[in-house]
Amino acid sequence: MLSTAFIAQLEAQVQELSATAAQQLRPLSSLQLNAKPTPTSWSVLECLEHLNRYSCFYNPALARALQSAPAAAPHQVGFSWLGRKSYDTVKPENVKPQKTIKYMNPVGSQLTGEVVEEFLQHQTQLLELLAAARTVELNRKAVRVEFFRLLKLRLGEALQFVVAHEQRHVQQALRAAQAAQHLAGPAVLVV
To answer: What is the CATH number of the domain that holds 135?
Structure first.
């Protein structure tokens, strides 16, 4: 895919994630935000806190990679084996449960609605990073993999990984919100 179309697609996906969080998750009551569909699943806030923890790693890493990336005209975005495998693991269509690293697991954390606001701030930062990525070389290995820092993803791969990971967990948060709809709080339409 041409880099300009690739970035435009990711920007649209991040804008959709932001709108979903603002319109469907932010209005939920504290009880609904913290409700778990099952004892072993995550609540809405746990899903978003997990993403916030990843954003605290990847947003600065992407910013550093973008600062050092050479300028480039529109080009085809390529994917390595590692990039494809990373994406396939987190893409929303992959329904296979994945284990997370202990320090990225928010279970047992004391979470409030501020988690939603932080998530929205991270989305604004990500949109700024994507805007900066429009004119740079996306096929350069530049972003360390969070859980195994000896490996690096190409800049385009890392951007796609981050957005897909967010899509996956926002969908999970929506399922948790839907399960919590019967709890006290304002009515929220979850689609």
So the answer is: 1.20.120.450
Looking at residue 27, the DSSP 8-state letter turns out to be: T
* Residue 74 in domain: yes
Q: Could you give the angle at the alpha carbon of 157 between the alpha carbons of 170 and 116, nearest 5°?
A: 25
At 187 the pLDDT is 56
pLDDT band at 142 (very low <50, low <70, confident <90, very high): confident
Predicted TM-score (pTM) of the model is 0.91
Own/partner contacts of 9-14, CB < 8 Å, gap of 24 or more, are 10/130, 10/159, 10/160, 10/163, 11/127, 11/130, 11/131, 13/163, 13/167, 14/123, 14/126, 14/127, 14/130, 14/163, 14/166
Assigned domain for 43 exists: yes
Find out whether 170 and 47 touch, Cβ atoms under 8 Å: yes
Distance CA 174, CA 66 (A): 32
